[in-house]
Amino acid sequence: MALSPTPRAVSVTLRTATPADAPSLAAWRSEPSVRRHQPLQEVSVADLRADLARQRPSDLYRSRGDRFQWIVLADRRPVGWITLALASWEQGVAEVGYALTTDAQGRGIIVPALEQLLAELFGHTAIERIEARCSVENVASQRVLERIGFVREGLLRGYFELDGRRVDNFLYALLRGDYFEGPR
């Protein structure tokens, strides 16, 4: 009887998104599995490139800027992205969003990617609270958030429109104090 090989561990890292990533981001954003639970607007490669060119990663450490993006790498291959949008530097509140390509979904990649980002954000920036929202139908994303310590704080009824219908979302949050006090 032949045994199935044990799945090989995937090396997961992050790098800052650059304008050169715009074509990949555009392609990933068009994948049905990526769009299934989020209302991604149609954006041209040129607009994505310009948006990425405006971002200054060093601003994150000076409590400046309002949007930052990272590319998720699995075994050094780009497979998705993470976005951080600052709601208020004064209050230290930000929102995180993420997506993986169809081929990368369900492979245990996003959890270590988010854990790396959380360590960086809580360890080296003035951010005190990170929020995340996900469709009530997106059970996989709910599991990811809960696994890394986010707490479900509430239901946002009819939060956005997707395929012609209003979709409820759950609001999750992770506080700096919870991050450092929780099991890591």
Q: Can you give the helix content as a percent range? A: 25-40%
Report the major sheet. 7 strands, mixed
Mean pLDDT score? 92
CATH superfamily annotation? Gcn5-related N-acetyltransferase (GNAT)
Whole-number tally of structural domains = 1
Question: How many beta-strand segments?
Answer: 7
Q: Kindly report the CATH topology.
A: Aminopeptidase
**SSE string:** EHHHEEEHEHEEH
Q: What radius of gyration results from the CA coordinates? A: 17 Å
Architecture (CATH level 2) name: 3-Layer(aba) Sandwich
Distance between the termini: 39 Å
Spatial order of strands in the largest sheet: 1-2-3-4-5-7-6
- CATH class reads Alpha Beta
What characteristic shape results from the CA principal axes? globular
Characterize the structure shown:
The chain is built from 6 helices and 7 strands, in the order βαααβββαβαββα. It is 28% helix and 34% strand. With 184 residues, it is of the alpha+beta class. The longest helix has 15 residues, at 110-124. It has helices at 22-29, 32-35, 45-54, 110-124, 139-147, 176-181; strands at 12-16, 67-74, 77-88, 93-100, 129-135, 151-162, 165-175. The chain has a single domain (12-181), classed as Gcn5-related N-acetyltransferase (GNAT) (Aminopeptidase, 3-Layer(aba) Sandwich), CATH 3.40.630. It has a 7-stranded mixed sheet, sandwiched between helices. A hairpin with a 2-residue loop joins strand 6 and strand 7 (165-175).
Q: How are the SSEs ordered, and which strands pair?
A:
Blueprint: E1 12-16, H1 22-29, H2 32-35, H3 45-54, E2 67-74, E3 77-88, E4 93-100, H4 110-124, E5 129-135, H5 139-147, E6 151-162, E7 165-175, H6 176-181
Parallel strand pairs: 4-5
Antiparallel strand pairs: 1-2, 2-3, 3-4, 5-7, 6-7
Helix pairs in contact: 1-3
